[in-house]
Amino acid sequence: MAEVDGKSIPLHEANLLLTGCPDCPHSDTARVNCIEGRESCTPPEYTSSWQYHEHGEHKNFPLNDWSYEVQNKDTILGYQEWVEHQLESLFDDTLDEIGFADAIEVSGANEDGHTLEGDADYFFVSGHVPGEGAIQIADFNTKELAMEFATALSAYKGLQIVEA
Fold first, then answer.
1. What is the 3-state secondary structure (H, E, C) of 64-133?
2. Is residue 109 left, alpha or beta, with left meaning phi > 0 and alpha meaning psi from -120 to 50?
3. Is-contact 91 153, C-beta < 8 A?
């Protein structure tokens, strides 16, 4: 028997952890289930429910940035599609960049950037890195949109979400 995630598992399953599925985002026990086909290694893809006509200009991707890219012929996408593409790229980039994080934080803030516990003007997602604190990833118009992003990161990286 071997100790994995505080549980004793058969040695052959522990050996699978060392040889198979090295990029699996699951905990060690779940990785064994993944390798043996009892659980999917692929977390659900991130898709934002942000809609321009419902939520307005995206906090992290302003209309001015999109307009600049259109004027420079860097994009032919409409604003909605451009933001969706930016969010997907941000998500993929974040997966690579938060390797040392031990949690994902969701916080609210006012327009001056001061963190709030109550009513907030916008919400942001951060990765918490031990010894460094929170490293801000992105701003979102609503708590629901921020939680959507954080939940997808959590599902992929196996990190706890903390609401600060």
1. HHHHHHHHCCCCCCCHHHHHHHHHHHHHHHHHHHCCCCCEEEEEEECCCCCEECCCCCEEEEEEEECCCE
2. beta
3. yes
Strand partners, 73: none
pLDDT digits (tens, 9 = 90+) for 113-161: 677 666 889 999 999 988 888 899 999 999 999 999 999 988 888 889 9
* Both structure tokens of 74: 């860097």
DSSP 59: S
Asked whether the beta carbons of 137 and 125 are under 8 A apart, the reply is: yes
The answer to whether 84 and 78 are in contact (CB under 8 A) is no
Check if the beta carbon of residue 104 is closer than 8 Å to that of residue 154.
Answer: yes
Furthest CA-CA distance within the chain: 63
- pTM value? 0.70
Q: Is 25 helix (H, G, I), strand (E, B) or coil?
A: coil
